[in-house]
Amino acid sequence: MTSQAPDNQRIVITGVGLTAPNGNTLAEYRDALLSGRSGVQQYDIRYIGETLAGVCDFDELKYQKRRNVRRGTRAGSIGIYCANEAIADSGIDWENTDRERVGVYVGVTEHGNVETENEIYEIKQYDYDTSVWTHHHNPRTVANNPAGEITLNMGITGPHYTVGAACAAGNAGLIQAAQQLLLGECDVAIGGGVSESIRTFGIFAGFASQGALASNEDPTKASRPFDRDRNGIVVSEGGCLFIVERYSDAAARGAKIYGELVGYAMNSDASDFVLPNPKQQARCMRMALERAQLNAGDIGIVSTHATATSSGDIQECTAVRDVFNGDSPTLINNTKSFIGHAMGAAGSLELAGNLPSFDDGVCHPTINVDNLDPECELAGLVLGEPRQTKGVDTILNNSFGMLGINSAVVIKRV
Amino acid sequence: MTKEEIREEVLDILADIAPDEDLSNLDDSQSFREQMELDSMDFLDIVMELRKRHRVQVPEDDYVNLASMNSTVEYLEPLMKDIQKV
Q1: DSSP, res B79
Q2: Residue A380 near residue A329, CB atoms below 8 Å
Q3: Where is the Ketosynthase family 3 (KS3) domain (chain A) (predicted)?
Q4: Rg for chain A (alpha carbons), in Å?
Q5: Which of A274, A361, A364, A383 is the most exposed place for a label (fewest CB within 10 A)?
Q6: B36, B45, B46: best mutation site toward chain A, by most A Cβ within 10 Å?
Q7: Shortest Cα distance, chain A CAs vs residue B70, angstroms
Q8: CB atoms < 10 A from the CB of A216, how many?
Q9: The CATH number of the domain where A60 resides is what?
């Protein structure tokens, strides 16, 4: 899978649809990343009370009727918004597209917690009478729900499913899309990730119990990967779905091409439920580079996964230092410092925010680093302000998750 | 509840279930399905809301009575006559 492969085995991104806590289009989101605009705000959720989160404000009714918003899930609505925006952005003649040849591959960190918590809360008001448990529960909580809602909304009759991959899910959805195109299972793939996780109190409570939930008087300063005073994760919602095609198809229709997926890798730590393993993270990045037939020094920007937990940030920095060893001109940034951790959407959102670098040559910064943790010092780390370069040709996007799941994708300018 | 109050209650439930529909011109003698986008899951919502709001149980064999506003009110009247309108 490299630019040297035959055109029908090259995979390119031709459309982007997203909603992030600081933007509902790629242009808005990119502007926020270049102007230092955070999307983190005060947030109130049942049982937890006041906390912080990244909240999206896209218009659910742009592509859905109220009836279907009510019937479906937030993850479904996020997916529907992103998929419709991505198709529109791609310029594909959607009316005349054979929908049986479209595949939908949506990465999720988890699904069903929000809906289950809501129902338990609801039946609690009825003394736990299960006869008032909603008949919508099962279609809302089946694991394919976010992808399935997209097919219902858009009349897509090709394959659909979600890819459960913890916080590596955004990359995993993109990788799955590419693989299914290479297998010939579809001609247009919609791939990426979504997250509705801020609607479940359990994720906040779980991180709090783990000592990994961020707090800060100023919400915009709460997500601070690499900073000595970081104190945990800001949970966010969001989504980013890419339109992915074979290069031969994209070129034939004269599509705008955001970049080519020239390499990817996924592997496992096999070492701990929660604590990342830098050796395996480094191995994952190296495998992606090998498949892309690139050296570390060829990479323009490394988009890090770092979530602002002390162990996670240091482990990733150890892995990045190992692979990029300080000699390469590679720049390094982090998007969670702006939007928090968008869970299943993190990987694809973080990649999307960097794609415009191919056009403007600017590397967006990592914000909120007032006192760099010496253990997170990396050559090339872009702090505070955007960095103008002579041009960016390649991006390596990291996305890691619990149970030791690692992913890296390499995108090249076409 | 009187027949008129039951009708208002059903309208209120329909407004929740079918928020995109204009219910102001609903023909009480015509079936709901002919006048708005409702499927079997929506009808289950009517049954569920009656159960949650008023503890009224509609057995599956009786769902057929919920076809139109007139038939629904007719069916519910004996079941809801002792319920006070809140």
Answers
A1: H
A2: yes
A3: 8-413
A4: 20
A5: A274
A6: B45
A7: 24
A8: 18
A9: 3.40.47.10
Neighbours of A187 (CB within 10 A): 16
Instruction: Note the pLDDT of residue A151.
Output: 98
| Contact across the interface for B51 and A71, Cβ inside 8 Å | no
Q: Does B19 touch chain A (CB under 8 A)?
A: yes
Inter-chain residue contact A135 with B37, CB threshold 8 Å: no
- Note whether A135 contacts B: Cβ–Cβ < 8 A: yes
Establish if A131 touches chain B: CB-CB under 8 angstroms. Answer: yes
User: What distance in Å separates the CA atoms of residue A13 and residue A40, rounded to the nearest whole number?
Assistant: 28
Q: Are residues A38 and A98 in the same domain?
A: yes
Q: Which residues of B touch A132 (CB under 8 A)?
A: 48, 51-52
Neighbours of A328 (CB within 10 A): 17
- Please name the residue of chain B whose CA is at the shortest distance from the CA of residue A127: B52
Calpha distance A336→A146 (Å, rounded): 23
Provide the number of structural domains found in chain A.
2
What residues contact residue B29 under an 8 Å CB cut-off, 6+ apart?
Answer: B68, B69, B70
In whole angstroms, what separates CA A340 from the centre of its chain? 11
Total CB pairs under 8 A between chain A and B: 23
Given CB atoms, is A127 within the 8 Å cutoff of chain B? no
On whether both A216 and A267 belong to a single domain, the answer is: no
Q: How confident is the model over A45-82, as pLDDT tens digits?
A: 999 999 999 999 999 999 999 999 999 999 999 999 99
Mutate: best of A60, A68, A69, A70, partner B, most B CBs <10 A: A70
Residue A46 sits at the chain B interface (C-beta within 8 Å): no
**Contact residues, chain A, for B18 at CB < 8 Å:** 67
- What residue numbers bound the domain in which A115 lies? 7-252
Enumerate the β-bridge partners of residue A334.
A304
| The token pair that represents A292 in the structure block | 């892309």
3 state SS of A78: helix
CB within 8 Å: B20 and A66:
yes
Q: How far is A335 from chain B (nearest CA, A)?
A: 38
**Average pLDDT value for residue range A84-107:** 98
Residues contacting A209, CB < 8 A, separation 6+: none
- Do A296 and A247 belong to one domain? no
Which token pair is A399?
């996305």
Is A1 part of any domain?
A: no
The answer to whether the CB atoms of B48 and A134 lie below 8 A apart is yes
Share of chain A above pLDDT 70, in %: 100
The 10s digit of each residue's pLDDT in A140-186 is 999 999 999 999 999 999 999 999 999 999 999 999 999 999 999 99
pTM for this prediction: 0.97
